[in-house]
Design goal:
It is globular, with a radius of gyration of 25 Å. The chain is an alpha/beta fold and 302 residues long. The longest helix has 19 residues. Strands 1-10-7-2-5-3-4 form a seven-stranded mixed sheet, with helices on both faces. A two-stranded parallel ribbon has the order 6-11. A two-stranded antiparallel sheet has the order 8-9. Helices cover 27% and strands 13% of the residues. It starts with 58 loop residues before the first helix and ends in a 12-residue tail after the last strand. The protein has nine helices and eleven strands. It has a single domain, classed as Glycerol-3-phosphate (1)-acyltransferase (3-Layer(aba) Sandwich), CATH 3.40.1130. Helix 6 crosses helix 9. Keywords: Acyltransferase, Transferase.
């Protein structure tokens, strides 16, 4: 339950201080010579914050992007829209996760060759030795399973505070062919990351990966972020469109849900509003069905 706000947030106007009632105001005499500090005193000047600069990509990330980026952009004819919505500093991209084989992530990284995207993978990936080691070496971070474990010291929050660009897939699992038009419910982690780091969230729509890297059928158990396909996916040379929407802060997303309850539910309400924004971007290109089911917890065979 939300706590009662103090009087300073009640909306009442602050009262003006009482007047001096005609009494003269005392003024300090002006000094003829300025006062200089003693010679043994250390004077510390307040530092000026430098302008935000985009850091160059890490070594392995830059090598992979340099080697595969042009091929990915050519093979999938990657088209990018809405780059003007991306700030130079900290930001969190929230994208749908339509394709398998990380093809949507590859296309997203190839769309911005001059800037590194630090992807947020699942904690399950971190526990897999080879996958976890590879993702860490490319600058990836990992989402904790429990929302209550996310705090100001979380690596994802720390990376945002370092003015980095991060990308998360709040659906937490990619789709099969049957659910290719479904946008599953977003995890509240993405909203809590943005709230703690005071970072804007950029809704992002990836269109075409559901056909270019489709998982036709396969088994998935609850808690696992991927399917075991009966047949390996094939990367088809189909066009990929990536569109970024206007940024939104955590507070702005909450304003769209005025009847939300307090506590951790606020993060889920903000994530639900973010899901609607991503669905609106997808709807400009193809039909999109909004689901209130967490796909990570689902069990399916195809």
């Amino acid at each position: 339950m939300l706590q009662e706000l103090p009087a300073c947030f009640s909306g009442s106007k602050p009262q003006a201080p009482p007047p001096h009632q005609g009494r003269p105001i005392a003024r300090l005499p002006e000094l003829e010579t300025p006062i200089s500090p003693p010679s043994d005193m250390i004077v510390i000047e307040s530092p000026r914050l430098p302008p935000v600069e985009i850091a160059p990509p890490q070594a392995l990330y830059g090598t992979i992007l340099k080697a595969l980026g042009p091929a990915v952009r050519t093979y999938s004819r990657v088209e990018v829209r809405g780059l003007e919505h991306l700030p130079a500093g900290r930001a969190l991209l929230a994208a749908n996760h339509p394709g398998s084989l990380w093809w949507d992530a590859f296309c997203l990284a190839a769309s911005m060759p001059e800037r590194q995207i630090h992807f947020v993978a699942q904690e399950w990936d971190a526990e897999t030795p080879l996958i976890g080691r590879f993702l860490r070496s490319t600058g990836c971070h990992f989402q904790r399973r429990s929302l209550t474990d996310v705090d100001i010291f979380d690596p994802v929050v720390a990376a945002l505070q370092e003015e980095k660009l991060l990308a998360a897939f709040p659906e937490q699992a990619y789709h099969t062919w049957r659910s290719r038009r479904v946008l599953h419910r977003f995890s509240p982690h993405v909203a809590k990351y943005a709230a703690l780091a005071e970072a804007p969230i950029i809704p992002c729509a990836v269109i075409g990966a559901e056909w270019a890297a489709a998982t036709l059928t396969g088994w998935k158990r609850p808690g696992m972020p991927f399917h075991f396909p009966w047949a390996p996916p094939i990367l088809l040379p189909l066009k990929i469109v990536i569109e970024f929407g206007p940024p939104a802060t955590y507070a702005e997303l909450l304003n769209e849900e005025p009847n939300s309850r307090g506590g951790e539910c606020l993060y889920q309400h903000a994530a639900d509003r973010l899901q609607v924004r991503v669905a609106d971007l997808i709807g400009r290109h193809r039909p999109c069905e909004i689901s209130r089911e967490f796909y990570l917890n689902a069990s399916s065979w195809w």
